[in-house]
Amino acid sequence: MRLSSGLSLVLAAAGSQVAAQTTLSSAPPSTTLTPEGPVTGKLGNATVVENNPPGVVYQATFPDAPFFKAAYPDGGNIKGSVTAVANPDGIGIMFKVKWSNLPKAGGPFLYHIHVAPIPDDGNCTAALAHLDPFVRGEDPACNKELPQTCQSGDLSGKYGTIPEGKDEFEASYVDLFTSTTEGLGSFFGNRSIVFHYANKTRVSCANFVKVASGEGPSHASTESVCSSTAGAAKPTGASNLTTTLTAPTGTSPSAPTHVSVAAATGLRATAAAGLIAFAAAIMFML
Ligand SMILES: [Cu+2]
Question: Which UniProt keywords apply (predicted)?
Fold first, then answer.
């Protein structure tokens, strides 16, 4: 309970930050998701998902052995995970990608949310295609300036590929088009992440599993105690994602490349709050 109280405080602080920063930005959002940009999906462009359940955390942790054995001739595999939780306001999902022991060749690497889970035998082919509820298809390639025109599951397309020649990679960003609300097409909690070579070879893959259930009197159980109310997926007038890539200047081969992506305009504050809540959620899990 002490941890719960701490989490509440952090969430409250995050909320204050949103309010404070939002009031500083009196100008209306300079861009909107629609009608800007081409319509790429058969069902339109991806829509912003609201009402994602607070505190529900999904994590995909990579296995000990790769699917594509040739990527690790000496054994081992990519280590690490992709963790996801809703922003405190429920708009968008905060992703944290943290990997090490990356393949020595084959980059820049790609990673996506794929529609199907990985079976027990670890066959990444069984993940099928990318999460693509608006039926966009893979071609042409994602334009990261217009993430709503990309496949929802194309995370490296929207937020950056992973450079070759580094041992580690970390990225944190808010994606507005994926969801932790069960029942939506953009829901990924029952799906998987696939890590690819640049040529799309499937190197390794992992299923998302729920590791925290969010609201409720007890956080000890991983069973869901949250409401499964389906949120409406609808466009809102905020986009214009910005990306900053900070490459380390040190010579250590293990120095991570850190990518920080935040939504511009009012959502930057939301993203900051999301980071705080996300950290709190992870702390809680520990
Ligand atoms: Cu993929």
Answer: Antioxidant, Secreted, Signal
CA of 110 to the centre of ligand 1 (A): 7
Phi-psi map region of 215: left, alpha, beta (phi>0 left; psi -120 to 50 alpha): beta
CA of 250 to the centre of ligand 1 (A): 31
Query: What is the rounded average pLDDT of the residues 203-207?
Result: 98
Q: 113 CA to middle of ligand 1, Å?
A: 7
CA of 97 to the centre of ligand 1 (A): 15
Identify the H or E element spanning 194: strand 192-196
Rounded Cα gap, residues 141 and 128, in angstroms: 18
**CA-angle at 198, arms to 142 and 133, nearest 5°:** 35
Q: What CA–CA distance (Å, rounded) separates 222 from 210? A: 7
Q: State residue 214's pLDDT score.
A: 80
pLDDT band per the 50, 70, 90 thresholds, residue 119: very high
User: Distance, CA 39 to ligand 1 centroid (Å)?
Assistant: 22
How close is the Cα of 211 to the center of ligand 1, in Å? Answer: 23
Q: Which amino acid is at 247?
A: A
Read off the pLDDT of residues 23-72 as tens digits, 9 standing for 90 and up: 333 333 333 454 567 999 999 999 999 999 999 999 999 999 999 999 99
Peptide linkage before 117 cis (omega within 30 of 0): no
pLDDT in tens, 225-256: 333 333 333 333 333 333 333 333 333 334 44
State residue 24's pLDDT score.
34
Question: Which domains can be identified in the chain, with CATH numbers?
Answer: 2-285 (2.60.40.200)
State the Cα angle at 173 between 171 and 174, rounded to 5°.
160
Q: How many CB atoms lie within 10 A of CB 125?
A: 13
Ligand 1 centroid to 187 CA: how many Å?
16
The pLDDT score that the predictor gives to residue 277 is 55
The pTM of the full predicted model, rounded to 2 decimals, is 0.68
